Amino acid sequence: MSRKVAYGGILLGLNIILLLLVNVLPINTLFLLGLASLPLSIIIMEWGPKVGVIFYFGSVILSFIVMANKSQWILYVFTFGIYGLIKYLIEKDRSIVVEYALKIIVANILVVVVYAILRFFIYIPVNFITIGIFEVAFIIYDYTYSLFIDYYNDRLRKITKMN
Hints:
By secondary structure, the chain is mainly alpha-helical. It has helices at residues 2-24, 29-36, 38-47, 49-66, 70-90, 96-118, 128-160. The chain starts with a helix and ends with a helix.
């Protein structure tokens, strides 16, 4: 049991380090937020969605403390941070078309929530071009997330001996 707790702590620490880097490297914000979302998928694969929810809330609390820009924190909490749980819930015995339709719908809802919160604090230009870029970027992000999950299951899990 202590090995699992330590592994979870290391993953949470990695998550927080990546979120700290958002403060230091502002030009790579979205990339770093995307990377910071990956440890949640490992937690879900190893211990299930219930532990994933606990990890998510731990990440939310600690990231609030370490992230200087609260607008980026809001973006993380409502999109990247929770995406591993959303992906897990959607990818259950559905066709790939239904999965992607559900993921795109949920992603758009979450982005609208973030926009509704942040529009009072920062200017966010919204037009057909930014919406199109978001849709394409989201599909690339989801595909990359899936590649990471496959890589973890095929290679990294054997190294960590957590299976």
